[in-house]
Fold:
Amino acid sequence: MILVGLGGNLPSVAGDALATCRAALKVLPQMGITVRAVSPWYRSAPHPPSDQPWFVNGVVLVSSKLPAHGLLAELHKVEAQFGRERSVANAARTLDLDLLAYDDEIHADGVVVPHPRLQDRAFVLKPLAALAPAWRHPILKKTATELLALLPQDQGVEALPSQES
Structure:
């Protein structure tokens, strides 16, 4: 099971943050990445807290023949297509594509997976639990639903109105 987190809080050439995330999903197949399922979309406060605009976040289940480092490189290329500029940590961005998990691998192919902070972030765990509630963190041995239940309820994550992915 390969899981990718999507998010953004700035407009791009595709439009607002939600339009950007949806447009990125359409580009992934061109990069050798097949989208198998898409979570509901969420609106989330910046984490750590700041005066940035709120984010749009989701999680997708994908498949690919690419090894983890190749997949991550392709995700970074997609980010760049939508104007992502890497400056300081936690900066506002047009698009963020995070490799959350690559099967049950730990540090797969030189890439740190599972994502080292996914268990601390409601903006990742809410869509992940909606998409794959039984997914089990290969190090912590807890499901996405169990990890979400352990988080404090103050991270500011709201489901967006139901819309087609």
